[in-house]
Amino acid sequence: MKASVYIAFSLDGFIARKNGDLDWLPEPGSTNEDYGYHAFMETVDALVMGRNTFEKVLSFGVPWPYGDKPVFVLSNSGFNIPEGMPPSVSVLSGDLSEIVAALLQRGYEHIYLDGGVTVQNFLRAGLVDRLILTIVPVLIGDGKRLFGSLAEDIPLTLIDQHTWPSGMTQLIYDLK
After folding, report:
1. What pLDDT score does 137 carry?
2. Could you count the other beta carbons within 10 Å of the beta carbon of residue 88?
3. Domain boundaries in the chain?
4. 94 vs 73: CA distance, rounded Å
5. What pLDDT is stored for residue 29 in this prediction?
6. How much is the pLDDT for 148?
7. Which parts of the chain register pLDDT below 50?
8. CATH of 2-14+32-174, one of 3.30.390.50, 3.40.50.720, 3.40.430.10, 3.30.450.40
9. Global pTM?
């Protein structure tokens, strides 16, 4: 199974402010670009995200953005999915390798990993195959880092790059 990260971060390496705010990101629809997001989502069978990311998505006050695509929310604290969510949303907990094996057994071939802690944990476990990183041309000075500490270096191979008139730059790396 392939596990990909698709995420934006500030030029100084933050995915959110310390309080979780994303107000530094461009407003949706403020440009004509989707930065490859829809094409990427067409390749994805399911999403795996942390509870904090799931709650952040709910806070946007927009219709559920993932349609009927399966979304697995990681939580080891007995988290319950709020009422009104599509039946395609469920909670998973446990060892990440076992979660990946279970998703593979269910027939998923490409998962989208979202959320800072989730991305960091999957990287540390050696379970990420591709990083699709979009750099937003802004310095926010402090916040939640995309990458945390690692026990060892993770070599990356640049496979593609894109730059848009808005100044956004996307780097696509393979890890394996």
Report:
1. 96
2. 15
3. 2-14+32-174
4. 12
5. 64
6. 87
7. none
8. 3.40.430.10
9. 0.94
